[in-house]
Amino acid sequence: KVLDKYAMETNLVDCIRQKEGGKELLQTIASRVISAIDEDKSSQAKWMQVTDDALRLSSLSKEPKNTPLPQSANIKYPLIRMACDQFAARSYPELIKDGKIVKTEIVGHSNPLIEALAYGVATHMSHQLLGSDSDWETGMDKLLTALPNIGYVCKKTYYDPIKKCNRSDVCYYKDVILRNDPTILSLNDLRRITHVLHIHPND
Questions:
Q1: Closest CA to 22 of 9, 36, 30, 194
Q2: Global pTM value
Q3: Which of 24, 79, 85, 89 is 20 to 30 A distant from 203 in Cα terms?
């Protein structure tokens, strides 16, 4: 019952603050959350370093080279960049075959009415993502270009109540904090997924 009640709340902080000892409880929760996030960051440190090195190679940034002689030539061929572009160019058409992103699957007994409803849902949701005011395509293009380099990219699709439209944001890899553990096989196995949001003071 308590979880059902809190599930309908927009901000749990306001509910907890109003209770007796709520301020102290919020401080306890905050310290536990920050400590857990710091542990996840530490587990990601080696992967972050490898990813930064890979991105530096693909960016073709000019770096001084002093071996075997001072100011030696440092020519970089865009092989990694070309491979990433080829991956994006070949993967994108496979995702939007027939102009439909969302596909439905009927579980259980099917009939013409259910099939028509499933088709309508898939068509409507695909139109929402591919509409003229949607940023889904732009974000997916960025994701497919970055994926071969980074190896893991998150995309968050949700309804924005302020702009009153569906949004699909590619999450920068440094803003998604996950525990790096070989025993974790999927996101569903994680105890927490932290997405760092950068908010302006006026927001």
A1: 30
A2: 0.72
A3: 24
